Amino acid sequence: MHTTTPLEALTARIGAVGSAVVAFSGGVDSSLVAAVAARALGPRALAVTAVSSALATGELEGARAVAASVGIAHEVVDTAELAREGYRRNDRFRCYHCKSELYDRLDELAARRGYAAVLSGANADDTGDWRPGLRAAAEHGVRHPLLEAGLGKEAVRALARALAVPSAEKPASPCLASRLPYGTPVSAATLERVDRAELALKRLGYEVLRVRHHGRLGRVQLAAEELVRVGDPGERAAVVAAVRAAGYDQVEIDEQPFRSGSLNLPITPVERSR
């Protein structure tokens, strides 16, 4: 008797919606959803990337390349998170306001163009972190095929590799506002400064990194394997100079390896349940 594979199950799940807009960042999760949607829905699938001040340099170009590779139609929408006071305030519900803006735009597009559903790349592991954006998704009726299928990040990467999705190994790259501690107001100027600093470090050859914004101070976080490089005095000086040139008066290099979602760690279980 044939046992349904995870890919077959995911393809059937996405195919059942009939037509869909995929919220598409170009990261591995949304790329897998887009790749499977292209297989299951063909021309009835559309990948849409949101462009705003919070999108890091190079991410849009990367998304376009992935969309072309997996064979899904791709478009761009402008979003205006910064027009929302709740987003600018940057409390622990910032992502709710960001995703509300995104899904408002995608809902409008889907309704205008006759798509039956909006799909996201949320996966099963996302339920274990602070994700107020999932509440916004629920309010908009967004479907999460990876989460619904019980697929976590490792399973997602495995399927992406099997389909030769170019972003299968791509490190997570959340919006630039995630570099600001909660309570630090979000502005276009601050996002631009963070973007300049991270881009400068990428040009030095660093790949997995964050520049955390603390006013005049930029705190650099690097992956464990890349922390070894800055043990060299010349390399450390180059990193510091690059971040200063981006607009930070003071620069610190975190001795602890980069950990995704580290700014969410202080959130208590009570706050997580809100």
TrEMBL record:
Claim: Ribonucleoprotein is one of the keywords in the record: no
Keywords, ordered alphabetically: Transferase
CDD domains: LarE-like
Domain annotation Asparagine synthetase: ranges: 19-125
Pfam families hit by this protein: Asn_synthase
Highest rank taxon of the organism: Bacteria
InterPro entries named among the record's database cross-references: Asn_synthase, LarE, Ni-pincer_cofactor_biosynth, Rossmann-like_a/b/a_fold
Coiled coil: none
GO molecular function terms attached to this record: transferase activity
Record's keyword annotation contains Transferase: yes
SUPFAM superfamilies hit by this protein: Adenine nucleotide alpha hydrolases-like (SSF52402)
UniProt protein name: ATP-dependent sacrificial sulfur transferase LarE
Lineage summary: Bacteria, Bacillati, Actinomycetota, Actinomycetes, Kitasatosporales
This protein's encoding gene: larE
